[in-house]
Amino acid sequence: MTSILSRLYSEFTLPIRDPLWNNIYFSSGFKEIISLEPVQKLGRIKQLGPAFHVYPGAVHTRLNHSFGVFHLSRKIMETFLTSRQADFFTDEGVRTFLCAALLHDIGHFPFAHSLKELPLRDHEELSAEIITSSPFADKLKKVLKVDPQSVAAIIDTNIDTGGNSELNFYRKVLSGTLDPDKLDYLNRDAFFCGVPYGIQDTDFIIRKLKVSSDSPALDSSAIMAVENLLFSKYLMYKAVYWHKTVRIATAMIKKAIFMGLEDRVITSGDLYNIDDDEFFRILSKRDYPPFSLIDRVIKRDFYKSVMELSYNPDNSFHRKLTDLHFRNGLSEKIASYLSKGAGFSVPPASVIIDIPEEISFEVDMKISAGNREKLFSDSKSVFTPSVVEGFTGSLRMIRLFIPGELTELTEDYEDFFG
Q1: pLDDT tens per residue across span 202-213
Q2: Which pTM does this prediction carry?
Q3: Which domains, ranges and CATH numbers included, belong to the chain?
Q4: What is the C-alpha separation between 54 and 45, in angstroms, rounded?
């Protein structure tokens, strides 16, 4: 255990400057891995997609974020190893975990989070595929002396770990309530957007992490850290991630891609392993009218919101609208209705119905108080499961977007929505 901790200090001496965490230290082996093209590609994908149209500073990339997750993961391991609360950590296992932290987004493609409703592969699955394929896998074996399959298994939960308790533990560290992914993106996104909402007391949180029997836990003195994270996530969704203008831009991109896939103008494979510039270049070459939506987003010529309703999960019609095909069918009906008033045919791509996907505010963090453990949801916190569920309900809005030139045709849209 001591030798592993010693190597985390002695081998990671090569700094890369980061505006959020200052110096992020890499070993020579990890420095060699980040120079590979699949990693460097992340430097050409904006972390927040079109959010820079609202927050001009939001031009940070998935590479910035990946470095940050690596940095926080290394600090977390230092905490676990220093406290000597577990004996299952191995030298190779720690390297494998840090490798997974660095490469967790390597399969990300532009606007992947905005396109979740479309029939596309999860970026975790694509990450695992890159990591386990030559020549990338060969490089990991040679330079870092890790098993690519184990790295992939930490990232992609569909991969069987074979009951390896160390790998299973790392999975829960990398993806949980207070994981390094969330701690970096909330802080980083807030920093670059210039808003105060996502800031976390990260050093305090990491110092208070503990090793439970099979998962990470948090000391009971730091319950407020979970409360702060939950509220921060809510505020970041409200102010940044689901800002109305950001929703319009992403909805326009999603509509174009959805129609392109449905009409077989593009395939899902066209979207993988590309960066932002390649995304726009590939689609701009296709002579397909709905792709003009993407050109409008580039030029900040956004559609206008002409109707807004709170999503009601008890409303059967609202629930039907969560199906993208049903939503597209209703868009076509509204386009036909607008055509009568316009005196010309309004194309289906001119009408977009947007509903944010259901999101979760995880509250399953283990809280440790002496020899006793309980879940955060069972602790004395104002953030009860019902309160947390209310966050999602207040965020989800049904919106109707149309081109600005059509907004004078009518204001009578709510009848279409039951």
Answers
A1: 999 999 999 987
A2: 0.95
A3: 2-242 (1.10.3210.10), 244-357+396-417 (1.20.1250)
A4: 17
